[in-house]
UniProtKB/TrEMBL annotation:
Sorted UniProt keywords: ATP-binding, Coiled coil, Cytoplasm, Cytoskeleton, Microtubule, Motor protein, Nucleotide-binding
Binding-site positions, ATP: G480, Q481, T482, G483, S484, G485, K486, T487
A GO molecular-function descriptor: ATP binding
Coiled-coil blocks: 208-390
Protein's recorded name: Kinesin-domain-containing protein
Location in or out of the cell: Cytoplasm, Cytoskeleton
Species of the source: Basidiobolus meristosporus CBS 931.73
Residue ranges, compositional bias (Basic and acidic residues): 159-173
Length: 734
């Protein structure tokens, strides 16, 4: 179908070419043979030869049509057909123009040219055309024409010979005949030309009408083609729709395929992984099996080695067996010998057992004796303490410290007996002429010089501590002015070490050690500690939670025990507890110190250690009590010059210290009334002072010459106490 269409179309394309060739031939005027060069020149100057070239038009139309057909699109096909029709129209116009214009132009040119020029050029043209014509009819043999001027009269005497007009020359005005001939020639030529043009026009008109009918045909053909193109377009649209449909189907299929492919891939990968896992498992199993095999081989080798050893052992055992048999015989002989020896030894053991029984009886007797001796020791110890005096006074002089080192302690003299101390006072008379020296001698149970260390001091009081463990009430006081070394003696410095720790920790340590040693003798001790402070006649718990204003009452029980209400009691079951206790007391004191400056100097601190011992062997029970008291500074009111709160404090201190002195004095004088209730301190210590107690007082002395007066007072107070003889201590044994 398409092939036949193309064939027809080629023919169609060819037909305008043939028409155009025909038109081109017609468009070219058929000039007379002598007019050809003129016509050619004119035609080359004419505009029709350049703008309309039917061949070019056809070529363009060919290429467009070919392109249109090749692309097979309707849009392209339409311009092609339009181009074809416009080409035909252009061709028609070109033919008409080409046919009429050259001839008309020539005629117009000849008619409108100025006369002279016209005549000249016409003459020239006629000459050009006439010469060959005449040459054909009348060849110019021997004819010449003399050129004369137009005004010159004709030469009448010469025969009238038709002279040839020279080329380019003008006929003179008088040559009317010649000029007429020229005109006639021109007229004839023009007529001929007109005839030819008319013929040509007629031919061209007929050609034109045939071309128009051809164009009509072509138009129809184009319309037919357009219809077919439309049909084809519709078909194309349907095909495109179908193609789109197919494409979407294809896409769906591709999508489906891809999904399936992905699934298959996934499945394949899973299978691959499974295979890899199986492979790995198999490899592991193989490895295990290889290991098992190696182990089995190793076991087999070991077994073989063991077998070999066994074989060797069996052979050596056989040899041994023989050896054993001979040994057995020898052992049998030995056994007989040993049996007889054993019998002898059994007899000896019986003897020894009798001796052991005897020895055990002796040990029991000795142990009994030991216990008796321990009891005896306690009694003797107590007797010694009693002989030493139930109230003793030790004097201790602290060393010069820091800035004080520039001072001298020449006013204090220490006799060699370690029991005496002398204060020397040098006085100059008012006029300065006389200097008197006065000595104040004092005697105490012991005098410690400034160089004496803490362990040495404790060595002197350890017997009293032992008495507390033995069941006696013991009180150890530190008395003296502020800064004389009372706290240092009783507790030690702020950060104590093993060398400089005070009497309280040392006493507790000794009690621990002795209690542990006494465990062998059946004694089991429990130790309870309390630490209180008496400030302005009020009792404060130094082991408590630091509650300010909490009231504590003193109660004396009928069994001779003294208790303090709501006061913290610590079980001192390990030595570490003592340092814990001292630390806690220090913290509570620091809190109190913020409320009252220099409070520690202005209060009495009382550490009480209650010792309860049980002897599981003898059934003895002992209850001892050790009070270690750091008394407040003993400055006299007159020297302290205190006022306000400080005056109140000093009065309270003085009252309690003088009450202590009064109590000791009353006890010494065996007065019927002992004024214990005069102060909180004496009331608290009621059961620790007096008949059944042992009391030790440290009188601490400052070495400074400036403290001479206070030192003298302290030593006088201590002497008063030292002179007291308080009853006989009674041991509390139940
Ligand atoms: N034997 C000593 N060896 C070394 N230093 C001592 C000795 N005695 C006391 N001191 C030091 O002297 C200073 C005063 O002593 P301490 O505080 O014990 O006096 P105090 O009488 O307790 O005073 P207060 O009444 O104010 O408490 C302290 O720095 C203390 O360490």
């Amino acid at each position: 179908m398409l092939g036949s269409t193309e064939g027809t179309f080629d023919d169609f394309l060819d037909s305008p070419r043939r028409i155009m060739e025909a038109v081109e031939i017609q468009a070219t005027p058929t000039p007379a043979p002598n007019m050809k060069p003129l016509m050619k020149r004119k035609a080359s100057q004419s505009s029709i030869s350049e703008p309309v070239n039917p061949r070019n038009v056809r070529a363009k139309a060919d290429s467009r049509t070919t392109t249109a057909l090749n692309s097979r699109t309707t849009a392209a096909a339409r311009p092609t057909t339009r181009a074809t029709s416009s080409t035909a129209a252009t061709t028609r116009r070109a033919v008409a123009t080409a046919t009429v214009k050259p001839v008309a132009a020539k005629v117009t040119e000849r008619l409108t040219r100025p006369r002279a020029t016209n005549v000249a050029s016409t003459n020239a043209a006629v000459t050009r055309r006439a010469v060959p014509a005449r040459a054909a009819t009348k060849p110019p043999v021997g004819t010449t024409r003399t050129t004369r001027s137009a005004s010159a009269p004709p030469v009448s005497d010469e025969p009238e010979v038709k002279k040839e007009k020279p080329k380019g020359a003008r006929r003179p005005a008088w040559d009317t005949k010649g000029r007429l001939e020229d005109m006639e020639e021109l007229t004839g030529f023009l007529k001929e030309q007109i005839q030819q043009s008319t013929d040509s026009m007629t031919t061209m008109h007929s050609k034109l009408s045939s071309s128009e009918s051809k164009i009509q045909e072509l138009e129809e053909f184009r319309r037919g083609l357009e219809t077919r193109v439309e049909v084809k377009e519709k078909e194309n649209t349907q095909i495109n729709l179908k193609a789109t449909e197919l494409e979407s189907k294809l896409e769906l299929l591709e999508q489906k395929n891809q999904d399936e492919l992905r699934l298959l891939k996934l499945k394949h990968e899973n299978e691959l992984e499974e295979v890899a896992r199986q492979k790995e498992r198999i490899l592991r199993e193989k490895e295990d099996l290889t290991n098992d095999l190696t182990k089995t081989k190793e076991l087999l080798r070991q077994q073989e080695d063991a077998n070999l050893q066994l074989r060797n052992t069996i052979s050596s055992q056989s040899a041994n067996y023989l050896q054993l048999e001979s040994d057995h015989r020898a052992v049998k002989n030995n056994l007989e010998t040993t049996e007889s020896t054993l019998k002898q030894r059994e007899a000896r053991i019986a003897e020894l057992e009798a001796l052991l029984t005897e020895a055990n009886q002796t040990v029991t007797t000795i142990e009994g004796k030991l216990r008796d001796e321990e009891t005896q020791r306690r009694k003797l110890h107590n007797t010694i303490q009693e002989l030493k005096g139930n109230i003793r006074v030790f004097c201790r002089v602290r060393p010069l410290l820091g800035a004080e080192l520039s001072d001298s302690i020449s006013h204090i003299h220490f006799p060699d007996d370690q029991k005496s101390i002398e204060l020397n006072q040098t006085q100059t008379s008012a006029d300065g002429s006389k200097t008197t020296s006065k000595t104040f001698p004092f005697q105490f149970d012991k005098v410690f010089q400034p160089t004496v260390s803490q362990p040495e001091v404790f060595g002197e009081i350890s017997q009293l501590v032992q008495s507390a463990l033995d069941g006696y009430p013991v009180c150890i006081f530190a008395y003296g002015q502020t800064g004389s070394g009372k706290t240092f003696t009783m507790e030690g410095p702020d950060h104590p070490n093993k060398e400089n720790m005070g009497m309280i920790p040392r006493a507790v340590m000794q009690i621990y050690e002795t209690a542990t040693a006494l465990e062998e003798k059946g004694w089991k001790y429990t130790m309870e500690g309390q630490f209180v402070e008496i400030y302005n006649e009020a009792i404060h718990d130094l082991l408590g939670a630091g509650e300010v204003g909490k009231k504590h009452d003193i109660r004396h029980l009928p069994n001779g025990k003294t208790i303090l209400t709501d006061v913290t009691t610590l079980m001192l079951d390990t030595p570490d507890k003592v340092s814990e206790l001292m630390k806690k007391a220090g913290q509570n004191r620091a809190v109190a110190a913020t409320q009252c400056n220099d409070r520690s100097s202005r209060s009495h601190s009382v550490f009480t250690l209650r010792l309860t011992g049980n002897n599981t062997l003898t059934g003895e029970v002992s209850e001892g009590i050790l009070n270690l008291i750091d008394l407040a500074g003993s400055e006299r009111l007159s020297s302290s010059k205190a006022t306000g709160d400080r005056l109140k404090e000093t009065q309270a201190i003085n009252k309690s210290l003088s009450s202590l002195g009064d109590v000791i004095y009353a006890l010494a004088n065996k007065e019927s009334h002992i004024p214990y209730r005069n102060s909180k301190l004496t009331y608290l210590l009621q059961n620790s002072l007096g008949g059944n107690s042992k009391t030790l007082m440290f009188v601490n002395i400052s070495p400074l010459p400036s403290n001479f007066g206070e030192t003298l007072c302290s030593l006088r107070f201590a002497t008063k106490v030292n002179n007291c003889q308080i009853g006989t201590a009674r041991k509390v044994v139940k």
